[in-house]
# Entry
Amino acid sequence: MTRANASDLWWKSAIVYCLDVETFLDWNGDGVGDLDGLIERIDYLAGIGVSCLWLMPFQPSPNRDDGYDVSDYYAIDDRLGTLGDLVVLLRTAKDRGLRVIIDLVVNHTSDQHPWFRSARRSPSSPFHDYYVWRDEEPKTKKADLVFPDAEDSIWCYDERAKKWYLHHFYRHQPDLNIANPAVREEIQRIVGFWLELGVDGFRVDAVPYLVEETGLDPHMLFKELRSFVTRRRGDAVLLGEVNLPAKPLATYFGDEPGDQLQLLFCFPLMQAMYLALARKDARPIVRSLRSLPDVPTEGQWAHFVRNHDELTLDQLTDKQREEVFAAFGPDPDMQLFGRGLRRRLPSMLDGDERRIRLVYSLLLTLPGTPVLFYGEEIGMAENLDIDGRMSVRTPMQWTDQRNGGFSPARPSRLVRPLPEGRFGSMAVNVAAQRRDPDSLLNWFERMIRRRREIPEIGMGRLAMVETGDHAVLAHCVELDGVSIVAVHNLSDEPRTVRLQLGDTTGCELTDLLDGDEVQTLEREKLDLKLDGYGYRWFRLQPEDAPTAP
Ligand code: GLC
# Structure
């Protein structure tokens, strides 16, 4: 792998930004965000420096799972706009150098989808075998339940069909029968349609569930899908939502050079990071990083701090999860499904901006592709008055005006209420932060610009660096003879550490952030002072190489 591949394998040095059109900006004043609103704010997004947008589902849907229950794969929810608007959006984004990927939700459809309506009517319907039916109710293991608050079985009896159908998620989301070649063909048609309109790839929803109970080999399915996608659009990407431990997770990259999903969300590391933050001890991160299998040439980890779902901690032990709950969400109302937290980072960290910056600095230096969730760049928090997972999906806070500048509609008409108080739009909004050079927003812009100048982080090889202090994490990513060293102090106390960098003869060290002077670099050791929650990024390169500006 060299820097020369950086533009072919664009996903290896991308910065992804996830947003829901519905909650971003309401342009027509009906209380719901829309494509016109998003088009309006494309320059804002390009200005932050993100390079790829991930749009949450925007297709027609009864909206019983916030659009993750699609009733028509070939159209746009008419509250949000039209296919014509989407094409304008894609074109505008492209013009500003932004790629766009969209959610591909094909583990299940809505029960309102015409396929399911027909399927339940009669076993002779051509769509009956699009779903997974049983004559007797199979047993459900507790671990199979994704939403234990709402469902006690993953099988539901259908009065019309007089059979049980499979639904890993809510009962109104019947699972598609992927083992049926006709269903796989439908998926290709859907994928082909959106690629033709100009999207750059897909975030594949609920990957491990796609094949369960159907008897199909998951790897065959993704090889087939990937080869179809690549035939249609060589550089389109598949980003998988696969919440599994590191080893089984990595099998979804496929064989060298990576013939299945190019990007996989790194759930194990994300969970370890929260444990490390709670303990102010870097070792869970070190262990997790060490346990990650190597990625194939075209593969890449996608790292994230928060997403639109609950912060799942299902890969931690019960005791570890309790530690994270105690530190970041002690109130039962902050917890969900017994496994996660329905909060965003700033409120979990009690608004401590030093610590918030530490976490995102770490995110931006992890070997992989960072994925941000809208509003993280200004430090938005959740609204716990909203039920369940929707607490973190509140409207974007643009100004301190009515509805945070999201919509001119009456507040009662808003798609979701904004939070109030300390993290409300009076205190946290884009407009105010744009004017303040020290704001989180301006910090993000500077950090993202720097990160984009360092493709080594997305493409190089990781090595851990000894610091002699459990609170301080140091790691190094090497590519083409250049090493990037990142140091993060998880404790609130200042620390002095001695990094063991190996042989650095003939090397020059550049501070990549504030340019502060480096104490000493004597052969293989670097002595370093860090503030409480401090972080430093360095480039170590041969003395005669051009230095970073
Ligand atoms: C994924 C989505 C989640 C959705 C579920 C069912 O886990 O992230 O929001 O509810 O799939 O589609």
Q: What stands out?
A: The domain at 461-541 is CATH 2.60.40.1180 (Immunoglobulin-like). The radius of gyration is 24 Å. Residues 16 and 371 are 5 Å apart (CA to CA). The chain is about 30% helix and 20% strand.
